[in-house]
């Protein structure tokens, strides 16, 4: 299958951070504001799910959300999920189907961690799913500005430059 076929058949739309996506699930159940951390404003769905597709030469820009996000591998080439913790620790996880090469089928990025993704070296595209809990809300989404993150973590400046657009 090609990227064009997947975009058409899965009815994917351009994602603000890069790549394509489609929301596939939003729980009917809600979590009351009083049960959430003070970081959240208003209630949230219990969970949400999306398809996410990224092509070679593109990337999901560094951003963070207020919820945990579990990534699930579906099709194509391995995806690199790149994280920079609040302490500046860099983690790169390969999500894919080659377990004997160190890839994993799923991985969870913890809330409030700067992260982005891109197709692994020599790959063409990755189709994954993302489950967010409490459910995703664009009010919880923060896209980083390159200079701001480089000031915090100058030792990661090259990678930050590669994974930011602003």
Helix-strand blueprint:
Blueprint: H1 3-9, E1 13-14, E2 20-26, E3 30-31, E4 44-45, E5 48-55, E6 60-64, E7 68-76, E8 79-84, E9 90-95, E10 106-109, E11 114-119, E12 125-133, E13 142-143, H2 146-152, H3 157-162
Antiparallel strand pairs: 1-2, 2-5, 3-4, 5-12, 6-11, 6-13, 7-10, 7-12, 8-9, 8-11
Short overview:
By secondary structure, the chain is mostly beta strands. The protein has helices at residues 3-9, 146-152, 157-162; strands at residues 13-14, 20-26, 30-31, 44-45, 48-55, 60-64, 68-76, 79-84, 90-95, 106-109, 114-119, 125-133, 142-143. β8 (79-84) and β9 form a beta hairpin.
Please give a structural write-up:
The chain has 166 residues and is mainly beta. The protein has a single domain, classed as Jelly Rolls (Sandwich). Helix content is 12%, strand content 41%. It has helices at 3-9, 146-152, 157-162, and strands at 13-14, 20-26, 30-31, 44-45, 48-55, 60-64, 68-76, 79-84, 90-95, 106-109, 114-119, 125-133, 142-143. The chain has a 6-stranded antiparallel β-sheet. β1 (13-14) and β2 (20-26) form a beta hairpin. The model has no long low-confidence stretch (mean pLDDT 96).
């Amino acid at each position: 299958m090609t990227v064009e076929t997947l975009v058409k058949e899965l009815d994917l739309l351009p994602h603000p951070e890069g790549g394509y996506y489609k929301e596939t699930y939003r729980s009917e159940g809600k979590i009351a504001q009083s049960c959430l951390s003070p970081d959240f404003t208003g209630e949230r769905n219990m969970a949400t799910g999306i398809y996410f597709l990224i092509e070679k030469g593109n990337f999901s820009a560094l951003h963070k959300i207020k919820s945990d996000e579990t990534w699930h591998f579906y099709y194509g080439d391995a995806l690199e999920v790149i994280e920079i913790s609040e302490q500046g620790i860099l983690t790169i996880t390969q999500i894919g189907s080659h377990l004997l090469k160190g890839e994993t089928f799923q991985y969870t990025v913890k809330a409030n961690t700067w992260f982005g993704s891109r197709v692994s070296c020599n790959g063409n595209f990755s189709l994954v799913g993302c489950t967010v809990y409490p459910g995703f809300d664009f009010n919880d989404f923060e896209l980083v500005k390159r200079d701001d993150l480089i000031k915090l973590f100058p030792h990661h400046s090259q990678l930050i430059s590669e994974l930011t657009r602003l």
